[in-house]
Amino acid sequence: MAKVKGALRLSACDARATALGLRAGMSLADARALHPALAVVEADPQGDAAMLARLADWGRRWTPLVATLPPDGIVLDVTGSAHLFGGEAAMRADAVARLAALGFAARAAIAGTPEAAATLARAADGAIVATGEETRALAPLPVAALGVAAEIADGLAKVGLRRIEDLALRPRAPFAARFGTDLVARLDAALGRTRSSIGARLEAPPYVAERRFFEPILTPEDVSRTLHRLTEELCAMLETHGEGALGLELALFRVDGAVRRIRVGASRPTREPARMALLFREKLAGERDELDIGWGFDVVRLSALSARRLDEAARRLDGEVAGEDLARLVDALGARLGTDRVRRIAPCDSHWPEDAAASIRPGASGSSSAGAPDAASGPDAAWPQPLPDAAADRPIRLFAHPEPIEAVATVPDGPPLRFRWRRVLHETAAFEGPERIAPAWWDEDRLTRDYFRTEDRSGRRFWIFREGLYGRETQAPRWYVHGLFG
């Protein structure tokens, strides 16, 4: 039950309640008047939506293109896949039987458009209609089968329009003016006059290899052997098209409806079966997760979620490709720890020290954090080289954020004579600079910086800057420590 406009109403009925004459939309008071011992539970729309999403994912055992049809339906685009299951009738019967085994009472139909199939499922369970025959098949069905609101169906019935054929041959404008455009849109879509996609939950992967088992597999060793065969098939497909996989997904469909999905990524395109299998082993080892096989898996599917051109690389005398050892290490660490936790530092095209480098994923062109520029030239960009025999003018490691200090200078534009940092006073013994870094003309939020390489009397060296030009940008420049030498 659920509260609708302040009144408690039945939101759904099981088979026994329907046989007793109850129906969805009936007020709870009327239902209890007919059957005082009626057992009701509060509706859980969020739980229903989650369950519908899980069923949609489970439905991908027949096709990768599956969408939810709230509140109680799923849509499968079986174009080009029905013959793999013995035809449309056999596929429909298989789906209904499997849903029944899971405890769901299902109505199913097949048609040329998703709207026509949904309409047939509501009023003509089991119908299979060829593309172009929607008008003939839907004509005798009640208007309510279109899925319109109950008040619209009742309003049409009051004026004698009870079947879809009563609407199909009449002008659209009066219906749209009185009952809204949704009625007209549903009618045209169901009759095939307008085309619409199903809005699949997940995009169909470019490469897929799968195994179906008459008897479900029940051991991790069986899963491992199946995975090995699937990687060989997938790599053969990739080699035919001259591509390598970057993202991979292993989907394990359990006979009780549960679906386990394991995703891994590679830093470089790959079509090596052993490397793919290693990624999945490391993924499971990193999660310390044993496969919950339950009653067994009857479908195992390996998909390449993304792929990229992979040209044959020159091999060394030992048969290996330069850089492959590092790529394997990066992939293994990414699978075990998570790809977002394996990073590398790349140079960026910026004069600002904190923006001169970015933390990116290995193999990605990448970008730095918000507000920072993109990496200079992709994953292989070179770091700027210092002049020969030149001393390091910047610290190797900077603070995450410049730390403010209290500094005393002889003149506003001069170096600090002394400064206090973290409650400790430092006397300047020597300095070099300034190195001036000015903001771009479009960057109005930043001030000019003058950097000094400063050494105190104890021999400790600091990288200090003054922010703001005195008299031009600010009347009170501020001082910061940005890093340490040595």
UniProtKB/TrEMBL annotation:
Compositionally biased intervals (Low complexity): 356-382
Region named Disordered: 353-387
Upper lineage: Bacteria, Pseudomonadati, Pseudomonadota, Alphaproteobacteria, Hyphomicrobiales
Name of the protein: UmuC domain-containing protein
Entry keywords, A to Z: DNA damage
Any Pfam family the entry gives: IMS
SUPFAM superfamilies: DNA/RNA polymerases
Family: Belongs to the DNA polymerase type-Y family.
InterPro entries per the UniProt record, alphabetical: DNA/RNA_pol_sf (IPR043502), Rev_trsase/Diguanyl_cyclase (IPR043128), SulA_CellDiv_inhibitor (IPR050356), UmuC (IPR001126)
Residue ranges of domain UmuC in the record: 9-117
Organism: Salinarimonas ramus
GO biological process terms held by the UniProt record: DNA repair
